[in-house]
Amino acid sequence: MTDLTGRVVLLTGASGGIGAAIATILGRAGASVVAHHLDARDRAGAEAALADVPPDRKLFLPADFAEPKAADPLWRAALDWRGRVDALVLNAAITRMGDGFEDPEEDWEESWDAQWRVNVLAPARLMRGAVRHWTARDRALGDGVLVTMSSWNAQRGSSSPRQIAYAATKAAIKATAQTVARGYARQGVLSYLIAPGIVRAGMSLEFARTLGDEGGITAGLQMGEWVPPDDIGHLVAFLATGKARHLTGATLDVNGATYVR
To answer: Which of 58, 170, 174, 184 is catalytic?
Structure first.
């Protein structure tokens, strides 16, 4: 089992799907987890994910990333909790159907704006806070670890022309995280990307519902099954240890060999 005892991890989007699986596995690995959630109604999912973690090893913080600069007070509160954050896991994201070129103008504008705020600007602001913290702190505390959840859509584009903005924003935050890896490698900052395929959680289930054909999606997967969220959680926990230092900058595909680069 991965050991994260003594490590402080800030996880965004901890209340459901992939995020909840990551939170549970981080907690079981001994990490002190700062679990971000959207609002009071959303908190229950994060609490359930960390139900077995002692109270002194978990902190729940709300933030609506659609609001400008909402990520800044979230970062400050996370940092104030223990005086440091050792790993930042950027999982929170949204997708909208309606950002295709043939969609109505009003829908197109709203969809692009919302996804840009949540999927790019908010995580970039958190990255900024984390990198400034890690490059200023004592290197004896170890390398700072950034794990950014991308998507195979960032590599190959979306299969739906109504999800152009989602693919574009995931590609944008991917490039941001890669630039962090290259720009701060000598200053003790490790930056990894995870690119999931079809995961049995949140967005993939929602996408399947819009198509009304989960069976057809499954038939197109090389392993004949969707990625379990726990697979992502265990990978995040391993990366959060900071032990795979020379893996920094890498994009790790998790799609059961359905898309091989």
So the answer is: 170
User: Considering 58, 69, 166, 259, which one is annotated as catalytic?
Assistant: 166
Strands 87-90 and 32-37: unpaired
What are the respective helix, strand and coil percentages of the chain, to the nearest 5?
Answer: 50, 15, 35
| Tokens of residue 181, six digits | 């890896």
**Which residues on adjacent β-strands are paired with residue 194?**
149, 252
What is the length of the chain? 261
Which listed CATH number (3.30.460.10, 3.30.1330.10, 3.40.50.720, 3.90.660.20) goes with 8-254?
3.40.50.720
Query: Does residue 192 carry a catalytic annotation?
Result: no
Q: In what order do the strands lie in the sheet with 144-149?
A: 58-62, 32-37, 8-11, 87-90, 144-149, 189-196, 251-254
Task: Indicate the domain borders of the chain.
Answer: 8-254
Cα(first)–Cα(last) distance of the chain, in Å?
Answer: 29
Structure tokens at 119: 């999927």
Is residue 113 a contact partner of residue 36, using CB atoms and an 8 Å limit?
Answer: no
8 A C-beta contact, residue 154 and residue 195: yes
Closest by CA to 47, choosing from 67, 77, 30, 27, is 27
pTM greater than 0.90 (yes/no) = yes
CA–CA separation, 48 vs 191, rounded Å? 28
pLDDT tens per residue, range 91-148: 999 998 778 898 899 999 999 999 999 999 999 999 999 999 999 999 888 999 999 9
Show the tokens assigned to 190. 């490790």
Please indicate whether residue 243 is annotated as part of the active site. no
